[in-house]
Amino acid sequence: MNNLPAMRSRPLVLNVDVGAPRRAGRGQLFPLDDIEVIEAENGATALALIAERQPVLVLVDVSLPHLCGPEVCRQIKAGWPYIGVLQISSTAIPVAERMAAMDSGADCHLIRPAESFELAAAVRTMLRHCRTEAQVWESARYYRVIAEHLVDHAIFACGPDGRVTSWNAGATAMLGYQPQEIIGEPCARLFLAEDVIAEVPENEMRAAQIGQGVRSERWHKRRDGTRFWACGHMAALRDRRGTVTGYLKILCHRTAHIDARDALLVARHELEDKVAERTRELTVANDRLQAEIAARELASEQLRQTQKMEALGHLTGGIAHDFNNLLTAILGGLEVIRRRMEDPRGLRLIDSSISAAQRGARLIAQLMAFARKQNLHAEQLSLNTLVQDMRELLEQSLGTATRIDYDLAIDVWPVLADANQVRIAMVNLAINARDAMPDGGVLRITTSNVSVTVAEPELAAGDYVALSVCDNGTGMPPEVRARLFEPFFTTKDVGQGTGLGLAQIYGFVRQSCGGVRVTTAAGEGTTITLLLPRLLATQP
Fold first, then answer.
1. Which domains does the chain have, with CATH numbers?
2. What global pTM score does this model have?
């Protein structure tokens, strides 16, 4: 019974009166082009037509048989409150009865006999009123259907005092309150305690009252006390004069969105941490790989240098051996000739030849030392004692422009080596250091015990005694360092060196099962360290 009448091109008017002449007279007042009129002679027939045709306006006479006009009016307003009712009564009806008829819900009341234009004007006014009211009812019904079926949004209204006045099904589903539980209660019940203390509900209503759009995202509280995150909007409800009559609040459930956002943030942070951790691992792995590559390159370079020195040693040793045989024969022949020579002039020539052959023999000895084919007289030595014995010789050999500092470790291990070769090596190293300091400088000689834990290309793992000669001279560039121990290689001017001193040292140390370490850089000085194997107590 509450369905609205269908919108027609002409409004439908029901004319109810027991008298046919009066019905006909009223019908003539209406232009048929504008209004459609139907008639009923009693209340029962009128109610049946209303149920069937849904007129916009009913003209009903108060004095109807069986079912009086006021009763028809009450039933119309009970079933179809949007249908307008115009009651008509005669002057014969007492005023009290006319007042009672008005209380039945009629929208307008006229007294017969009325002027025709009065009736026509009243009908047209009522039609305009009914059309407007029908539109209002249609809009209200439309928005009521929306509110009732929008179950994923909580929609509720509050009065000016902040108490809930309406509550939709979405609000029940989202907040847990049934309408009878929440209507009349303060809307602050839906906010968290800290928001109530901060007067958030009142602040929202004040902002809506002055026309500001109130949008918010915050936690709200359900009936069971649990929280949920909602996106909300509040607007003020106003009457025709603009006076605020209440507030409309709409909440949209966003907890899943917030949970997804938080999960995304957590996942992003976890991903960033994993990427950072993986990057660190890759950096460490790359550094380790680069170090391994550098170590392999260094080992390869050392191996190539060792192979090169081995090849040079074999070649030099073969040549030196052959020349040594030739020089031995030459020196032997010269000695025989000298013993038989009586001419003083001839003796001088023979002595000069013998001296030259002896110098060649010393060069051959140095080459034999580099080739590790010389005869060594190994014995137990204390390098500290040997250095102390050579202090005077070294100081005289280097001159006053070079200061010598000594740093000899206490209780250095004994070594098994040729003492004479050690002395020659120290002198050669000291002189080379002096030459690297043309303006003078400091020469530092140190001894120490060294344990090698990882085998090197030219040095086995074990215990060694280190004898180091360090200068603060010009140092060596890499290309010179690479050829430092090659026979006949020298950076000195012609006639100032044969290039065999360091080669002899290298060959002697390697033949003694030791090694040589060089630390140098251009402009930063040079340190050359001889590593001689430790003599153990069980060794002969």
1. 12-147 (3.40.50.2300), 150-253 (3.30.450.20), 266-370 (1.10.287), 378-533 (3.30.565.10)
2. 0.39
